[in-house]
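Lecture 7 notes: from sequence to structure.

We start with a single chain of 310 residues. Read the sequence below before looking at the structure.
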Amino acid sequence: MQKIFYGAPGTGKSYKIDNSILNGVSDDHIFRITFYPDFSYSDFVGQLLPTVIPPATPGGMSTITYEFQKGVFTTALEKAYENNAEDVYLVIEEMSRGDCATIFGDIFQLLDRQKSGPNMGYSRYFINNKMISNDIIALPGDTVKLPANFHILGTVNTSDQNVFVMDTAFKRRFDWEYISPNPIEVIGMPGTYENNVDLEINDGNTKRTISWVDFYQKLNEFIADDRYLELGEDKQLGPFFIEFDSTAGVKEHNKVIQNKLLNYLWTDVHKASYKSDIRLFKDDIGTFKKLYEEFEAGHQVFSETFILIL
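Now the structure, written as tokens:
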């Protein structure tokens, strides 16, 4: 399996992986890493690093040797070759935040898997990589292939795809599954949703109690719908954009909204819109400072247009 789960921030991509695929898999068969701009091939696959060997006798000289230190990819691959009957999962979070072409390097060649036949699931082509093959005893010679029990799962935020663009050749070697921003029902409890709490929003007349699930879905409608801001789905929020403490009260939940959501809505939504006739916030709110303070005081901060769809 090679699959990338993609969607807006907080839609539950990692939640999907953990609950649909990794549920019941022992921790020693799961390897997790997060890509970031400075993450490299050496971090991913491994590299030669100096090791100081203490002197054999007192007063002797220490010696320095260079040994291959496995990266997460090689460690996971070695685990997969230890027992081909047990599945091993390499989970890569935030794939688009790293330069995949550079990080994977020659490993890219291994991502093309056999779709049928006796070697189904194995890499269609091998690579010659002595650093990896010398470190994994089960590999013959210096040839390297991915076995069928070695799975790579990734997550991609659609709002981050411009950080490092994945080329088409890389993309097509993965299956892709869209994770929508819809709320996630608690298993066995229809109509009850994960990470759902009550908030208080001033609608200009009173402080109205509204659930997080209802609030963020109305935000998504306002953000993406062509009747309103028309900014596209990559600006939308998922149910886990904020993870609330279910034991806290409405006041604490509003504080989390103030500190974790308002800046995103101001910078990436309100300021990103080119429409002059439709705004997310009131016309007299011209700075983030004022937005922050007005929300903290419990005043109305959202525009009448948005209030109408709540």
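The longest helix spans residues 250-270. Keep this in mind for problem set 3.
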